[in-house]
Write a structure and sequence with these properties.
The structure is a homodimer. Chain A has about 240 residues and is of the alpha+beta class. The first copy, chain A, folds into 2 domains: about 60 residues, Orthogonal Bundle (Arc Repressor Mutant, subunit A); about 160 residues, Chorismate lyase-like (Chorismate lyase, 3-Layer(aba) Sandwich), CATH 3.40.1410.10. A 6-stranded antiparallel sheet of chain A has the order 4-5-6-9-8-7. In chain A, helix 1 crosses helix 3. In chain A, about 35% of the residues are buried. At the A-B interface, helix 3, strand 7, helix 7, strand 8 and strand 10 of A face helix 3, strand 7, helix 7, strand 8 and strand 10 of B. Strand 7 of chain A pairs antiparallel with strand 10 of chain B, so a sheet runs across the interface. The structure holds a DNA duplex (30 and 30 nucleotides).
Chain lengths: ~240, ~240
DNA sequence: CTTCAATTTTGGTATAGACCAGATGAAGGG
DNA sequence: CCCTTCATCTGGTCTATACCAAAATTGAAG
């Protein structure tokens, strides 16, 4: 897998990357269309697309389906251990944060959830699906499950902000321990659609389980992030 | 970006995924060649490749350049906060771990490293490049920088194991705090070649800065992981 | 048996053309 | 002004073909 430095698509990649780095194309701006990028100079559209895929994998550009290719804004720095503040985090970085609640339902505890919460199958749970955006671009979708016994009537509270704050102020539930699992993944059917990206694009799957001081699971959160939208930063004291 | 369930390449993807899930193709086994997968049934090779790329992004298969496509083994679970034990971690999961030292050199502190270590530009540093493999497949390359003033003659110690153990036993340097930055990225020229993957494939960039009790940086480590080789798991107590 | 050269197979790159569905924007109707 | 309609533009998918370089295999020679 040596790079002979003569591959056509890498040359095209470099040409576009240079225009972006030079400021000719700014974050959020649309690139010329694939057919315009061919310029008539004997370059097949497939080669142009290969270069665009490369830039996309590097997080330099992104696409909106059938709309065009755009220059990526800088990623958001995110510390999963300080989960109380997606909104304030993003805004502290000078960006505009939005949260949409896609759905909120009461569900019966599934066999998959039962061992996590230590509750019987069928026990009432709340499930909340939210989409969060930065500067108008959807960057993550998440599904949160909360034990209804711990937070009765949770769904009547405002859910477009910090859920942890709601749990603390309305139910006096404080999170004492946090388990975070992260794995690079491909965004498939459901998540890809919610994030308006093509199925199969790389993403990051973050699963967060929050416990209170008694060791009860108070929040189970599965997040799917666009791969180019975030930078994870964790600061840890050694045990 | 809806999925009409009638896309040809997704059908091919599902067919191959089924054969893998059904156990017909086992982890580590080679898939039939792209031309064999066409079976003569009016499917262009480009469509077959599109399906293979999809499976690759999902971490189900991987490729070796011009050798073929292979079924991915399960990922390694890795806790970056317990960095002392890559080898023991991997072996505790029943896998075979290897570490190769690609290079070890004494360098002069660069302008980029100076503020990290709080040392003047030109101060002596050690730089170690290693490649680590699981079951014979390279999964990460890392570049470690250590202040030579803290660990004189470090390079004469064995470096194919745990560096943190060496620092502790030979120099009595204990790590007290750890900062971990992670960002999905594309594996480009250098790292891609070391990992024997195609440039542009998604990966995970992990930057780890280790401090001792006095706040001095004792280790600065930049790791590039194959995206499908690991699952990150962090357990955190709330501050 | 091992060693080395030649052959075959494989994925990687590239071109050219075609059609489709969703996004976009302009034109027209209310 | 807003809303709808429609033509156009855009990326998404697909076929067919060609050549290349590296890997894997074969086969001959030692």
């Amino acid at each position: 897998m040596t790079q002979p430095d003569s591959l056509h698509y890498l040359g095209v990649r470099d040409a576009i990357a240079t225009r972006i780095a030079g400021g000719e194309l700014k974050p959020g701006e649309r690139l010329p269309s694939e057919r315009q990028l061919q310029v008539g100079g004997g370059v097949a559209r497939g080669t142009i697309r290969e270069a665009l895929f490369q830039l996309e994998a590097e997080g330099i550009i992104y696409r909106k389906d059938r709309s065009g290719w755009y220059v990526s804004p800088p990623p958001v720095v995110y510390d999963p251990t300080r989960w109380e503040g997606f909104m304030s985090y993003v805004e502290a970085q000078g960006r505009r944060a939005e949260t949409e609640t896609l759905s909120k339902t009461e569900i019966a505890c599934t066999p998959a959830l039962a061992p996590i919460f230590g509750r019987p199958v069928g026990a009432p749970m709340y499930r909340i699906r939210r989409r969060r955006s930065v500067d108008g671009r959807a960057v993550l979708v998440e599904t949160i499950v909360v034990d209804a016994a711990l937070a009765p009537d949770l769904l009547s509270h405002p859910l477009d902000g910090s859920l942890t704050s709601v749990l603390k102020s309305a139910y006096n539930i404080a999170v004492a321990r946090n388990r975070v699992d992260m794995q690079p993944c491909a965004l498939t059917r459901g998540e890809a659609e919610a994030l308006q990206v093509k199925s199969g694009l790389p993403g990051l799957n973050v699963v967060r389980t929050s416990y209170d001081a008694q060791g009860r699971v108070v929040e189970f959160d599965r997040e799917y992030w666009r791969h180019d939208a975030l930078k994870i930063s964790v600061d840890i004291r050694v045990r």
